[in-house]
Specification:
Layout (H helix, E strand, L loop, with lengths): L10 E2 L6 E2 L9 E6 L6 H10 L6 E3 L5 E3 L6 E2 L5 H5 L1 E6 L3 E2 L2 E2 L2 H17 L11 E3 L17 H16 L10 H15 L6 H8 L3 H11 L10 H10 L5 H8 L3 H12 L1
Parallel strand pairs: 1-5, 3-7, 3-10, 4-7
Antiparallel strand pairs: 2-6, 4-5, 8-9
Helix pairs in contact: 3-4, 4-5, 5-7, 8-10
């Protein structure tokens, strides 16, 4: 985005068909998320919607570029439900893979940032799944938005919440984690293990106050400190992916396991 606060997209490529001018007096109270079922650019969406009777307000490309195709004040044809269309903003996301469907980290990050910016701009409150943020499948019988409503949902919504707090100055009240938070920590740990949150200070900054919980779960998943002993093989795979950094940082983070893990890394790479 050129400007998150004013919702000024990187690209404005506005449709002249397959949307409805205005909102029939209705106000925006929700955001509906979609996936492309393909890795489309803003131009690719524009061309597709020339002949297909559908549209969305925004497209987020795999590289993070955001394009606007329908003005927010107009009604895009995206939810398969007219009431939802009149009262929502539709955001499309490009898939970086199809087996399984998955959006890139850059797409997730900027899509979530856009959700936060919209929530601030339209005074929708902190992004919350099922309250002011929905998947397409909530309104229509469809698999869309695929991973965004599935195994990437926790990471997506965590980033949307982070950006909302940054943009609004909101300070969420400290509270005892509810049961669903455990599942979110688990999903975030999986995302960390896949390398989606970087390493070291980058990971700490992006996870914010969830860092300690998520990193603890990462260590559990990789076998460090378990009663059956550390999973040296899994830790070696994580090192090869770059999850444990290099040199002194790797040695510090692996601690007493460093020599065993590094030996296994050397075996795997030989």
């Amino acid at each position: 985005m050129k400007n998150w606060n004013s919702l000024d997209a990187d690209i404005n490529l506005l449709l002249e068909c397959h949307y409805t001018k205005g909102r029939q007096g209705r106000t925006i109270d929700k955001i509906v998320l979609h996936h492309n079922a393909g890795n489309l650019s803003v131009r690719g969406c524009f061309e597709t919607w020339q002949t297909r009777q559908a549209s969305a307000h925004y497209q987020v490309q795999s590289g993070g570029i955001i394009g606007q195709l329908v003005w927010d004040g107009d009604t895009a044809w995206h939810a398969g439900n007219w009431e939802a269309n009149l009262t929502s903003i539709g955001i499309e996301h490009a898939d970086v893979s199809s087996s399984p469907w998955r959006i890139s980290q850059a797409c997730l990050e900027n899509g979530a940032h856009l959700v936060a910016a919209l929530c601030v701009y339209y005074k929708l409150g902190r992004p919350e799944w099922g309250k002011n943020v929905y998947g397409h499948s909530h309104f229509s019988p469809t698999e869309c938005p695929a991973s965004i409503a599935g195994n990437q949902r926790a990471a997506y919504m965590a980033r949307a919440g982070f950006w909302y707090d940054q943009m609004s100055g909101n300070r969420p009240a400290a509270s005892k984690p509810a049961a669903p938070a455990t599942a979110n920590i688990d999903a975030l740990a999986d995302a960390v293990i896949r390398g989606e949150y970087g390493n070291g200070d980058t990971r700490r900054a992006r996870l914010g106050n969830l860092y300690e919980q998520v990193q603890r779960r990462v260590n559990e998943k990789l076998g460090a400190g378990s009663s059956s002993g550390p999973n040296i093989d899994a830790l070696a795979d994580a090192v090869i992916r770059g999850d444990y950094g290099n040199g002194d940082e790797r040695r510090r983070r692996l601690g007493g396991l460093y020599d065993a893990v590094q030996a296994r890394v050397n075996q795997k790479l030989s």
